[in-house]
Amino acid sequence: MTQASGFNVPGTYLFDGDMAMKGYALNKMCFSFNDAANRQAFAADEAGYCRRYGLNAEQCRVVHERDVLGLLAAGGNVYYLAKFAGILGLDVQDLGALQTGMSKEAFKQMLLEAGK
């Protein structure tokens, strides 16, 4: 796990230039989900859709397994991954909960406490 200097947030990866390059195909695919036709194409042939965008084997695996931490480690940017999460009926708080290993309720409570 790559951490920013002085920061240690469990379940996070520093999204720097190297991670952007690593995740380019994955993030490009997730961005495509802005279009309903692309969401339907993904649902109809998930593996083919991943190949269409040039995802590597690890990226295909974590997409198939819906592995949020794996998606981040594979170069996924949370803003683009939110598009993928929407297909699954998840929101950004669901992603945060999965990322931290908390329940959604506990994650929301943590956010509320942090805002005080």
Automatic annotation (TrEMBL):
InterPro entries: LigA_sf, Xdiol_dOase_LigA. It comes from the Bacteria. Residues 26-111 form the Extradiol ring-cleavage dioxygenase LigAB LigA subunit domain. Transmembrane segments: none annotated. This is Extradiol ring-cleavage dioxygenase LigAB LigA subunit domain-containing protein. It comes from Vogesella alkaliphila.
